[in-house]
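Lab notes, practical 5.
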Amino acid sequence: MPIIGQSFGLLGALRANTAEKWLEERVRKYGPISKLRLFGKPTVFICGQAANKFLFTAQGKTVESQQPQSTKRILGDRNLLELSGQDHRRIRNALLSFLKPESLKEYVGRMDEEVRKHLQLHWEGKQQVKVLPLMKTLTFNITCSLLFGLKEGEERDKFLAFFQKVLEGVWSVPINLPFTRYNQSLKASARIPNMLKELVLRKKMELEQKGASPRQDLITCLLSMLDDDKKEIMTEKEIIQNAMFVMVAGHDTTSTLLTFIIRLFENEPTVYAAVLQEQEEIAKSKLPGQPLTWEDLAKMKYTWRVAMETLRMFPPVFGSFRKAMTDIEYEDYIIPKGWQIFWTTPMTHMDNNLFPDPSKFDPSRFENQASIPPYSFIPFGGGSRICPGTEFARIETLVAIHYLVTRFTWKLCADNGFSRDLMPVPSQGLPLQIWPRKLS
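Output from the prediction step:
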């Protein structure tokens, strides 16, 4: 179809959970490099370990980040996804000053507090829960607390409603009609910057007048960063758009990972027993009510291997885009300047040559990170654009799993597979029957 091209075909395959087969069929027909049209732009699809290496090492030289028009219109043109060169390094370094492991050590206690509060409100005393909506609520609350400094209340609830609308249209066909997801997402994204602007101004006043700690949340941290001339490193627009980007990037990805870990425990009793044993040993070493520490997380090696294997089999991010900065010669083809380049995560994750018996859930694959073939395991991307929030997601995941497995036991009420609506979505939100448990 003109302009739309194969966009509806790919989106339909994602929602039917047949996107890998859809792409595999393209590879069988046309090989590992082929042209198509996605989201209004001429596109080249490339896949495989060599393709990943090419894209992640060529970043900023012959290719640059290129998001669908829908993403750019919704999140703005000054967020980390859209920037390149010196601007990208400046913003990335600013975000990493808050998100790097050395900085996040001091936030483990606050994550612990948010998780326990969430379980008390939404799990304790319940007989049945739906996991995915609750995990989204949990990750949203953690992000609001640590990144925005927003406590529970009406303001946080408003943000949640608008952000959910924004997420629905990030990967959509950019047809701006009243009944489309794209239109609804655009409307929601127009409201958020004004809300964030008020928040930024409030944080700036707290920083200047009340001596607020620069480390209390991400926005305050970014506001406090100055260059050699004592000028703010990031503009207000950049702070607002990158706050939106971090929220969108972190909200659904970690909630999806947590949901699929809980889902797999039902079908992998040996894995579940090993995770439970590791977490119970840590719980027994704590005094009643004592929060987890950075040192406790370092002991959760097997649990994190389980999370890594879950990311391999069910990556939250299906793929992304780059743009050719010049005519590029690749595999005896010319990729014209300005064309989109589409890459996907599952094509290497489920490659038998890279991960033997890829359909088998096997956390031992990650016992030795050096044994993982390079440019094959890419749930967080790679190269200079690897996700800056990886460590944030690790801490969030380990803290949540610790309390879930040591405080509850469960049984799936229904599991009719899952579809992809940008992220993988289990049918019915993964309903569970739950019971409280005590340390054995």
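Observations recorded by the TA: The mean pLDDT is 89. The domain at 7-436 is CATH 1.10.630.10 (Cytochrome p450).
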